[in-house]
Amino acid sequence: MDLDEQARQILRKNDKGGYTLPTHGLYPYQWNWDSAFAAWGFTTFDPDRGWTELETLMSGQWDDGMVPHILFHKVDPGYFPGPDVWQGRGPIPSSGISQPPIAASFMRKMLGMDPAGEPRARAMWPQLKRWHAWFMAWRLDEGAVCITHPWEAGRDNAPDWDAAMAGIDPTGVGEYTRRDTSHVDPAMRPTKYDYDRYIKLVQTGASVNWDHAKLKEINPFRVADPTMTFTLLRAQRDLLALGQKFGEDVSDIPDWIETLEKGAETLWNAELGAYDSRDVLTGKFNGIFSNASALCWYAGIDDARAMPAIERVMDAVEYGMASYDPAAEGFEPLRYWRGPTWPIMNYLVATGMEECGQTSMADRIRSDTARLMRLNGFSEYYDPHTGAPAGGATFTWTAAVWLGWARFDHEEARGVA
Ligand code: DGY
Which atom of ligand 1 is nearest to the CA of 31? Predict the structure, then answer.
């Protein structure tokens, strides 16, 4: 079977009717940013199903505007922590944090692919605006977007969070049984040290019923993050373009964009020569080059200062781009966000570069991504040195990246990116 058909089959097999699992077993629910990729992947062959994916995601929106990072549509004992631990307060059982807000950007892309979907996009636009307003109200520090849990950035165990995680006292977290390590080799997953702190943060949020004002006072973890800052900045630009097309009130959005542009600049770590995460509670940069450092172009910031570090990191591996600097202490080529190459990040990074005219690096990242999939199918992530598949197999968002982008040659990719 050719790769296109394999990718379509992955999406169909992970389809639970209205929402798509990232992969069976390891992730048995609807994840927020995975779902945006799934919607786009479906739109390449079944646009109706693509729109439904986004609608199901938005149906979990909380009263205050937040769209949660996990929607627990149907309880599955194979996942921990489930809805009983999170105790989210939305219309659908959910987690209590959000995730990188890429849905508006994918909605704009999907509309380009399927103009007939416009009534459905119009219906979701106000929901997306409320979600973006929620970030502006609750997650800013000097204009940069903060996370309140490592899972909010989507880059769960990235070295960016190590310093802030060290400040969390996990005493009293209690006994629990992880499920992720029964699906995937523990060497490719976060450690118990990490999980104790992840769960402690969930318990802290649940203890105040996810009241954001109270949580801001007591949460021991608040980090300004390039993933969130750049994806929200990009999403605000896309929301603005869509709102203008739909004749909506867009008067708040230019100010939001200006605030986030200023916030992005606060993440520039001149000593590192890269965009970095910043611990809000200590005021210190984390000193970490990650693949999120390269998302500035995706946010519309064409920054020549950022390219030398990216070239060095790309040159250090066979299949770029690594999620963490291969020259840094603690680089682990197979452990989740501490080294592996992630097709979804490659897509976001390269799409931004492509749009800003940085085509040679964009082409290089796209070729590396396509080579990984041709070599080893549609894994969650890959060893950047050998290309070995890692994490969950038959992965929805990796299949979507193939269908929507990686399978094209460079000239074709320019047309679709
Ligand atoms: C997990 O369970 O590993 C998820 O990434 C949390 O969002």
Answer: 7
Q: Ligand 1, atom 4: nearest CA belongs to which residue?
A: 151
Label each residue of 177-222 as H, E or C.
Answer: CCCHHHHCCHHHCCCHHHHHHHHHHHHHHHHCCCCHHHHHHHCCCC
Supply the pTM of this predicted model: 0.98
- Per-residue model confidence as pLDDT tens digits over 93-117: 999 999 999 999 999 999 999 999 9
Ligand 1 pocket residue status of 180, Cβ below 6 Å? yes
Tokens linked to 287 = 């000193």
Q: Is residue 175 annotated as a catalytic residue, yes or no?
A: no
Rg (CA), the chain: 19
Q: Is the CB of 29 under 6 A from ligand 1?
A: no
- Rounded CA separation 49/17 (Å): 9
Interatomic CA distance for residues 3 and 319, integer angstroms: 19
Domains of the chain: 3-407 (1.50.10.10)
Measured from the Cα of 189, ligand 1's closest atom is: 3
Q: Tell me how far apart the alpha carbons of residues 216 and 138 are, in angstroms, rounded to a whole number.
A: 8
- List, in order, residues 6 or more apart from 16 with CB less than 8 Å away: 30, 73, 74
**Is the C-beta atom of 156 inside 6 A of ligand 1?**
yes
Question: What is the token pair recorded at 328?
Answer: 């840094």
Confidence (pLDDT) at 417: 63
Residue 114 a catalytic site member: no
